[in-house]
Amino acid sequence: MDINQRIAERMRAARDAAGLSLAALAERSGVSRSNISLIERGESSATATVLDKLSAALGITVASLFEGPPGAAPSPVARAADQPVWTDPASGYVRRNLSPAAWSPIQLVEVSFPPGARVAYETSARAVDVDQQVWIIEGAMEVTVGATRWQLATGDCLAMRLDQPITFHNPNTTAARYLVALTTQTHKPPK
C-alpha cells in the first residue's frame, strides 16, 4: 500500500474515532480543512510539521499514522520489508516505523536525517502524555526542546516529553541516523 494511502486511512479512522468533523479537526489543529481533506484522500503528502499538528489534535502519535490498516489482525512481528517508510517532503528526512502492529505502550521509529536539514514541531500540551527518547546511532544532531538546546553525538540519548516546541537540526555535512522510542499514556479523567 502507498504510504500516503496508509496515512489517509489512519487519519480518517482516528478522526472518526475521535468523533470530529473536518471543520472541528481543522480548528483544533490549525491545519486547513482543505489540506486535511487532501491528506485523507491520499492526494497530498503532508509534512512532518503538519502530521504533528494533526496527531496532537487527535490525541495520537505521529508514529500511529503509519501503522497498518485499522481492523487488520495485528502481528507481534514487524518484518523489515513490511515496515512503512516515509520521507518528509519539506526536509527530506526519512522515517521507518519499526514497531509491530500488535498493541504495545512503546513505539520505535528509525530516522535518517539529511545534512543541513531542520524540522520544527510546534508541539504543545496534548490530550495524552507522550514521552520520547532519541538515541543517536550515527552522526550528530542538535535538538532544541523549549528553550534548551542539546548537542547530541553518536551514542548520546535525550529524553523529553512532547509538550513544548521541539526542533531537530543536523548542522553537519553528513547524514545522521537515530532511534526514537515513544510511550503514550492517556490522561485519567478526574474522579
Count of β-strands: 10
- Provide the spatial order of strands within the biggest beta sheet: 1-2-3-10-5-8
Instruction: Give the CA-CA distance, first to last residue.
Output: 43 Å
**Net shape:** globular
Order of helices and strands: HHHHEEEEEEEEEE
pLDDT < 50 stretches: 187-191
Q: Mind telling me the CATH class of the largest domain?
A: Mainly Beta
Average predicted local confidence, pLDDT = 90
Percent of residues in helices comes to 10-25%
The CATH architecture of the largest domain is: Sandwich
Number of helices: 4
Structural class of the helices, strands and pairings?
Answer: alpha+beta
Largest sheet: 6 strands, antiparallel
As for the number of domains, it is 2
Radius of gyration: 16 Å
Structure in words:
- By secondary structure, this protein is of the alpha+beta class.
- The chain has 2 domains: 64 residues, 434 Repressor (Amino-terminal Domain), CATH 1.10.260; 107 residues, Jelly Rolls.
- It has 4 helices and 10 strands; from the N terminus they run ααααββββββββββ.
- It has a 6-stranded antiparallel beta sheet with strand order 1-2-3-10-5-8, with no helix packed on it. It has a 4-stranded antiparallel beta sheet with strand order 4-9-6-7.
- The longest helix is centred in the first third of the chain and has 16 residues.
- The protein is globular and about 40 Å long.
- The C terminus is likely disordered.
